[in-house]
Amino acid sequence: MFGVEAEELLLADPHSDTTFELLGNTGTALVVLGLCLFAADRARHLLYPLASVGTMTLTLYSGHIAVMWLTEPLGSGYGGISDVLTHDAEIYVIAALLLSSLWRYRFGSGPLERMLTRAANGISDRVVPRPRAPTESVGV
Question: Which long-range contacts (CB under 8 A, 24 or more apart) does 110-115 make?
C-alpha cells in the first residue's frame, strides 16, 4: 500500500525510520546523557570553565560580535569574516573560557544576563505581584 514491506518495519537499521530505530536512538541518547551527567558530577572543578560560559552566553555572544567588528580589517566589506588573526576561533574560545570563569568567580552571572533578569522580574512583578512576607503582630 505505501511501498513498505511489513518485515521492513521490524528493522533497526540506521536511517530506516522505524519504531525500533527510534527506540534504539532514544536509548543511546539517554545513556550518553546519563554518562555526561555522571561525569559532570564527578569532575565539577574540571568543568567549571564550561559551566561559566553557560552562565553568560548572551554576554559572550555580544562580546564576540563586538570583537569581530573591531578586528575586522578595513575594506573587507559588510559582513566580512575577520582575517586579522589566523587562529581567531581558538583565541575566542580560550578568551571566553578564561573571562567567563573569572567573571563568574567574582560576580556570578554575566552583566547582560543580570540586566535581562532584572527587566524580566520587574515586568513580571507588575503583572503578578509577589506575595509579601507576613508581618508579626504585636500582642493584643
Answer: 110/55, 110/56, 110/57, 110/58, 110/59, 110/60, 111/56, 111/59, 112/56, 112/58, 112/59, 112/62, 113/55, 113/56, 113/57, 113/58, 113/59
Task: Please count the residues of the chain.
Answer: 140
- Beta carbons within 10 angstroms of residue 130's beta carbon: 8
Residue 54 has pLDDT above 80, yes or no: yes
User: Could you tell me which residue, 76 or 135, shows the higher pLDDT?
Assistant: 135
Interacting residues of 88 by C-beta distance below 8 A, sequence separation 6+: 68, 71, 82
Average pLDDT over residues 7-36: 84
Q: Take residue 100 and report the three cell numbers written for it.
A: 567567563
Q: Is the pLDDT of residue 11 over 90?
A: no
- Rg, Å, the chain Cα set: 25
| Grid coordinates belonging to 106 | 567574582
Residue 132: per-residue pLDDT: 76
In angstroms, the CA 5 to CA 90 distance is 50
Provide the whole-model pTM: 0.62
